[in-house]
């Protein structure tokens, strides 16, 4: 339908009014005090005309790398007034939490001052609180607040209380919103040497109710879709909502046997395009791990194929290099993966997607190898049985580099495709 100039100007003024109104509603403190700001009902209703959840999205840049930093993190502005915090991105857990001055019993060194909690506590019997408890018949020591304890696979744990506060988010249509959501105030952390990172907290992007994407979706702001693009050069981005080109993505189903993780399977292990005879593998895609882990059977099979394939090539075991369990040295120190990738073949997980067509998740040599600070090449796929993963196979950051990864919670699909992750999309009409 064509419109005249007057109609076009009127439409533009209406759109500008809607944007200003929505930004002001979310961006200003109410005069009556801290707790009366931004009720969740206002969040979903005030911007429904402006933010169509089918098309709206949030894109946030990433920092960090697999080695030597060991993690990827985002900067989120949280609180009133919003203050910046560095958060480790974790698709393997649900709760977003900050090290918190409650006061803090055990907190590690943080890049920013400890988070000062709001006094808007989530009640003990709230569904969000229930989703964090070990069983449905949990006991409330204090009905007015939600206490939680989370244990991670790498012997890391956090004890805290759940509360509501404001997240400052920039949507790709140019709108900036202050969105009220739950987060954890972590006042007692237990660290292991391998899990210690100088960060303010963790960004939980799992499938549970407290996950940031679940809360955004429940307020009608975005579709229940998250994704990430980790650059092998360092950095990248994460996104919430429809910020990807589905035509460039290969899909497989999320496993119905695992309600907590982004898990897929069964899969068959492929080495250099050849079947290894190792099958029935369940894989969890988890940005909370720098490296990938195979179960003991798959790991030993991989080592066997690797060592057989490296016979006669100018690489020798480097047991003195403790960077990772298995490293090799050359005639001279290596400076980049490009110098050694010719000696290694791609690994793949071949998923049966429900028909004759199989979805293949390829792990190129640069997605399972690192160059250590000693100039050796090391295997970034480890034995999961040594950290208690049992039959689980975990696909960590190293193997998801230079791919756009999409976790379609609504359609229960996991997707991936090649991408230039060093370029963070900024357009209002984002297409990754």
TrEMBL record:
This is Aspartic proteinase Asp1. Belongs to the peptidase A1 family. It comes from the Eukaryota. PANTHER family: ASPARTYL PROTEASES, EUKARYOTIC ASPARTYL PROTEASE FAMILY PROTEIN. GO terms for biological process: proteolysis. The lineage of its organism: Eukaryota, Viridiplantae, Streptophyta, Embryophyta, Tracheophyta. One of its GO terms (molecular function) is aspartic-type endopeptidase activity. The keyword Heme does not apply. Keywords: Aspartyl protease, Hydrolase, Protease, Repeat, Signal.
């Amino acid at each position: 339908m064509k419109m005249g100039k007057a109609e076009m100007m009127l439409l533009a003024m209406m759109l500008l009014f809607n944007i200003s109104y929505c930004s002001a509603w979310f961006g200003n403190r109410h005069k009556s005090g801290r707790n009366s700001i931004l009720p969740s009902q206002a969040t979903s209703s005030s911007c429904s005309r402006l933010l169509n959840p089918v098309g709206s999205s949030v894109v946030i840049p990433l920092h960090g790398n697999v080695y030597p930093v060991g993690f990827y993190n985002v900067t989120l502005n949280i609180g009133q007034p919003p203050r910046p915090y560095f958060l480790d991105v974790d698709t393997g857990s649900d709760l977003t939490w900050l090290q918190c001055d409650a006061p803090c019993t055990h907190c590690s060194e943080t890049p920013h001052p400890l988070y000062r909690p709001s006094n808007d506590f989530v009640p003990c019997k709230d569904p969000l609180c229930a989703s964090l408890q070990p069983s449905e018949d949990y006991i409330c020591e204090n009905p007015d607040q939600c206490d939680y304890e989370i244990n991670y696979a790498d012997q890391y744990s956090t004890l805290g209380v759940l509360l509501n506060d404001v997240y400052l988010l920039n949507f790709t249509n140019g709108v900036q919103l202050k969105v009220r959501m739950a987060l954890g105030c972590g006042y007692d952390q237990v660290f292991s040497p391998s899990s210690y990172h100088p960060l303010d907290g963790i960004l939980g992007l799992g499938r549970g109710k407290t996950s940031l994407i679940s809360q955004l979706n429940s307020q009608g702001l975005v579709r229940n879709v998250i994704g990430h693009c980790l650059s092998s050069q360092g950095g990248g981005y994460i996104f919430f909502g429809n910020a990807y080109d589905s035509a460039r993505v290969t899909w497989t189903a999320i496993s119905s046997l695992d309600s907590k993780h982004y898990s897929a399977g069964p899969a068959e292990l492929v080495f250099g395009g050849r079947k290894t005879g190792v099958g029935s593998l369940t894989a969890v895609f988890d940005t909370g791990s720098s490296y990938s882990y195979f179960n003991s059977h798959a790991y030993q099979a991989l080592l066997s194929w690797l060592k057989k394939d490296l016979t006669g090539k100018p690489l020798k075991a480097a047991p003195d290099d403790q960077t990772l369990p298995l490293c090799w040295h050359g005639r001279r120190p290596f400076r980049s993966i490009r110098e050694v990738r010719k000696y290694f073949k791609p690994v793949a997980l071949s998923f049966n997607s429900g028909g004759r067509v199989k979805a293949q998740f390829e792990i190129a040599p640069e997605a399972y190898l690192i160059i250590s600070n000693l100039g050796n090449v090391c295997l970034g796929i480890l034995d999961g049985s040594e950290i208690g993963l049992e039959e689980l196979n975990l696909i960590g950051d190293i193997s998801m580099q230079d791919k756009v990864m999409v976790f379609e919670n609504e359609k229960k699909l996991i997707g991936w495709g090649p991408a230039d992750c060093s370029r963070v999309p900024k357009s209002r009409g984002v297409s990754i």
